[in-house]
Design brief:
Number of strands: 25
Strand content: 25-35%
CATH class of the domain at 6-69 and 181-241 and 337-394: Alpha Beta
CATH topology of the domain at 6-69 and 181-241 and 337-394: FAD/NAD(P)-binding domain
Bound molecules: flavin-adenine dinucleotide, FE2/S2 (inorganic) cluster
Length: about 500
């Protein structure tokens, strides 16, 4: 089956490119925010509103990372989570999780109203549905858990999807929006009065505290009292966040649907092969249906085209919708299901991180902005302990042991891949690991027959990258760095490109 949707995120395709300058000389601000996804944009905005001068520093362009490739349901109902949270963390922490996510949705809606931002915000009911008995038991357990915590959920026997369900949990008054319209509108309010937005400025590292020095690849430095790292996975390895999370990739397709046939709420299924479903209004007055799913750990599947194919088939067979868009992205899963929001390490007092949103980072990014701005402003925050980034427990969960073991196995095992393959064996359109003069090379031959060769060793911590067919990229299975066939960084935590290698 040929893929029919255009390979671009609808959120990016439907917004104008941003054109903020790159950093070209040293600047001094109160707070530097590194990474302009939703977490970075929100943090910078709330700090500027509170009177701080900020510099928002982005390696690429505003909102083109995970936040520009999301489904953008802003929710406190995260598929199934509350029954697990109660089991693993107890009632009080589970209650705070619900409270903080709901407060973040309200804060986002308030900000959009106060700043009069046109970003297609809609308040909607959100459903997690089951289609079989096993799923139904889980949904019912989630209803019980959420109601114990005082959350306003209810059990419903049917939903307005074009197939029967066994039952669903419904949370009313959640939200969905156009994330890039929102991020661009907020970014536009930042520059001036000592604050800045810099694009195409990759941060290499952050040195010192009091003040902090944000060192960029452009050769210039931002000097700041406080630094917030919102690069999805922090680029600073010292906090070991790469070992407290794992990168999960997920896929979306979208196509136009008639309003009369469109489902009214936001939906996600449970179990293997679950689908995430929502609509969004388009700029020309139409409606687009988004369907997501097919998640897997980054760098562990090179036949990624098949995942898009399954989603496009589903869109067509279930809704009769022709795919117009397809895109994919990734997010960091936290081992204990809670994000990490706080100081980089216990020894840091002015360097902060927000990560581990576990594919539910819309409300959590807003929450990160609220919490980190409070922290920098010296305001007590009721959720600070729950999400404390330096909490020790995540290192000893079953998932963390398994994932970190897998990283170790790949670090060693992947070095034997392509041991006997040479450049001649790479066919047009194919990406392959080969060995040349003892070096592990990532080789891609484009359709015109030209060979593109770079080192296969990830510059982050030395794992071997893997081919991603659908995105024609080299993806690192260890902590999720991604690179173009020419070696350029597509996704961190790497701050250096893949080294150029020739096969001559
Ligand atoms: C397919 C998919 C669907 C999802 N759907 C939902 C959903 O419906 N609801 C929900 O709540 N969540 C959802 N999520 C999760 C949510 O989108 C993410 O949790 C959230 O967008 C993460 O935001 P962020 O700001 O941490 O990261 P990003 O948006 O990735 O922002 C990080 C930024 O940092 C920049 N950066 C990286 N390195 C550097 C550097 N060295 N110097 C400067 N800048 C740098 C990047 O270029 C990027 O712009 C989904 C995720 C995926 C992948
Ligand atoms: S992303 Fe960490 S080794 Fe590649």
């Amino acid at each position: 089956m040929t893929l029919t949707g255009r390979h671009v995120s609808y959120w990016i395709d439907s917004t104008l490119p941003s054109t903020y300058p790159a950093l070209s000389q040293d600047v001094t601000v109160d707070v530097a925010v590194v990474g302009a996804g939703l977490a970075g944009v929100m943090t910078a905005k709330l700090l500027k509103r509170a009177g701080k001068t900020v510099a928002l520093i982005e390696a690429d362009r505003i909102g083109r990372g995970t936040s520009g490739h999301t489904t953008a349901k802003v929710s406190a109902l995260h598929q199934l989570i509350y029954a697990d949270l109660i089991d693993e963390h107890g009632d009080e922490k589970a209650r705070l999780y619900g409270e903080s996510n709901r407060a973040a949705i309200a804060r986002l809606a308030d900000l959009i109203a106060a700043e009069n931002i046109d970003c297609d915000l809609e308040r909607k009911a959100n459903y997690t549905f089951a289609t079989d008995e096993a799923g139904l038991a889980k949904v019912q357990a989630e209803v019980t858990a959420t109601q114990t915590l005082g959350l306003p959920t209810s059990f419903v026997e049917s939903v307005d999807l074009p197939f029967p369900v066994a039952g669903a949990i419904m949370m009313p008054d959640e939200a969905q929006f156009h994330p890039r319209k929102f991020m661009l509108a907020i970014a536009a309010t930042l520059p001036g009065d000592g604050s800045h937005v810099f694009e195409q400025t990759r941060v290499k590292t952050v040195e010192d505290e009091g003040p902090c020095r944000v060192i960029t690849h452009n050769g210039s430095t931002v000097i700041a009292q406080d630094v917030v790292i919102t690069t999805n996975l922090p680029i600073l390895d010292i906090g070991l966040y790469f070992a407290k999370t794992y990168p999960q990739r997920s896929y979306l397709v979208a196509g136009p649907i008639e309003a009369s046939r469109a489902p009214q709420g936001m939906y996600i299924g449970v179990g293997e092969g679950y689908r995430s479903i929502r609509t969004t209004p388009t700029n020309d007055g139409g409606l687009l249906l988004l369907v997501g799913g097919e998640g897997h750990k980054v760098g562990t599947d090179d036949a990624t085209d098949e995942r898009f194919q399954r989603l496009e088939s589903y869109l067509h067979s279930t809704f009769g919708v022709e795919p117009a868009y397809r895109w994919s992205s990734q997010d960091m899963y936290s081992f204990d299901k809670l994000p990490y929001i706080g100081t980089l390490t216990p020894a840091h007092h002015h360097t902060y991180v927000a990560t581990g949103f576990s594919l539910w980072g819309m409300a959590k990014s807003v929450m990160a902005g609220m919490m980190l701005s409070d922290r920098i402003l010296g305001i007590e925050n009721p959720w600070a302990d729950l999400y404390e980034a330096t909490r020790p427990t995540p290192f000893v969960t079953a998932t963390s042991i398994q994932q970190n073991l897998e990283v170790g196995i790949r670090w060693v095992g992947d070095r034997f891949k392509g041991l006997f393959d040479s450049a001649d064996s790479v066919k047009p359109g194919e990406g392959k690991l080969i060995t040349h003069k003892g070096s592990k090379i990532a080789a891609y031959r484009d359709d015109s027959g030209e060979l593109h060769t770079v080192s296969a060793v990830c510059p982050h911590l030395g794992c071997i990258v893997a081919w991603n067919e659908a995105e024609t990229s080299w993806d690192c299975p260890c902590h999720g760095s991604r690179f173009t066939c020419e070696g350029k960084i597509l996704h961190g935590p790497a701050v250096k490109p893949l080294e150029q290698k020739s096969c001559d």
